[in-house]
Design a protein that fits this description.
The complex is a heterodimer. By secondary structure, chain A is mainly alpha-helical. Chain A has helices at 7-20, 23-34, 39-43, 50-63, 81-118, and strands spanning 37-38, 66-71, 74-79. Chain A has a single domain, classed as Orthogonal Bundle (Arc Repressor Mutant, subunit A), CATH 1.10.10. Chain A is built from 5 helices and 3 strands; from the N terminus they run ααβααββα. In chain A, strand 2 and strand 3 (74-79) form a beta hairpin. Chain A starts with 6 loop residues before the first helix and ends in a 10-residue tail after the last helix. The two termini of chain B are 17 Å apart. Chain B has a 7-stranded antiparallel β-sheet. Chain B is α+β, with helices and mostly antiparallel strands. The longest helix of chain B is centred in the C-terminal third of the chain and has 12 residues, at 134-145. Chain B has a single domain (12-122), classed as START domain (Alpha-D-Glucose-1,6-Bisphosphate, Chain A, domain 4). Classes of the chains: A mainly alpha, B alpha+beta. The interface between A and B is large, with 38 and 42 residues.
């Protein structure tokens, strides 16, 4: 079908979806969608240890959804929006696939229609 | 679709087709017609289709070109000519995961309102209708992935 089957791409998408499947990680993404932030800022609202939050952050980093850079002694987190475009793209690809198939279906309908118009009417044995 | 699984992304495509529901239904279910439009591959592709049109019956569409052979297959779940056809769908498009396709055909005069729903796609994502805004994406994702997948 459409060329979305590359194994690496699939693996990447799986990682993104797995990352997004957890409510804490979604909350982290939501926080970072407003602005980049230090790890400690990100962890603040959660009723869990910094260590536990860090674990979630590492999952997000591994999936490519979140990026980390060092600024002096601080670790700044930000969102890698491109990673989500890809998720979006996958759904779009499925939609595009069907739109194209339906286009082809309608082309065939027109073709069949024309055949019928050209072919001499043979009695009343109209099948379908 | 009454199968208890409502999570995961859904793609829905709708269009009004200038043909009767019976004729469209046949395009979806008769092998000699299926091969004439279902293959997405341009150029010389040898396309073979077969189907056993009844609930539980299988269909397959094999597309062979010079460099590859690709197959789409599935099982009919609901067969109600000419209004509704529900079938599972496995192929390269779905990374060979079993998904579910529903084709509904509602006659509108001499045209037909076709609604195609493709669900149980292999990875949970945002629902249709989302915008690219982060807040929206997250809202949809929260719905889509709050259950195990």
């Amino acid at each position: 079908m459409i060329e979305i089957g590359a194994a690496s791409r699939t693996a990447r998408l799986d990682a993104v979806f797995a990352a997004l499947a957890d409510p804490t990680r979604r909350a982290i993404i939501e926080r970072l969608s407003r602005s980049e932030a230090r790890v400690t800022e990100v962890a603040e609202p959660f009723a869990m240890t910094l260590n536990a939050v860090s674990k979630h952050i590492r999952v997000l980093e591994a999936s490519g959804v979140v990026a980390r850079r060092r600024h002096g002694r601080e670790h700044i987190l930000s969102i890698n929006t491109g990673s989500l475009d890809e998720v979006d793209g996958w759904i779009e690809a499925v939609r595009r696939y069907w739109e194209q198939r339906l286009d082809a279906m309608e082309r065939l309908l027109r073709e069949l229609d024309e055949d019928r118009a050209v072919a001499p009417k043979d009695g009343k044995h109209g099948s379908r | 679709m009454g199968h208890g699984e409502t999570t995961g992304p859904i793609v829905q495509v709708r269009r009004r087709v200038r043909a009767g529901a019976e004729q469209i239904f046949d395009l979806w279910t008769q092998p000699d017609l299926m091969v004439r439009w279902m293959s997405p591959y341009p150029g010389a592709v040898d396309c073979k289709a077969s189907c056993d049109l009844r609930p539980g019956g299988a269909f397959s569409l094999v597309m062979a070109s010079a460099d590859a052979i690709r197959e789409v297959s599935g099982t009919y779940v609901q067969v109600e000519r000419p209004r509704k056809l529900v079938f599972t769908w496995i192929g390269p498009l779905t990374n060979n995961v079993t998904t579910l396709v529903t084709v509904e055909l509602n006659p509108l005069g001499d045209e037909t309102d076709l609604v195609l729903t493709h669900e149980r796609l292999p990875t949970p994502a945002m629902w249709e209708g989302h915008t690219r805004g982060w807040g929206n994406i997250l809202d949809h994702l929260a719905d889509a992935v709050s259950n195990d997948f």
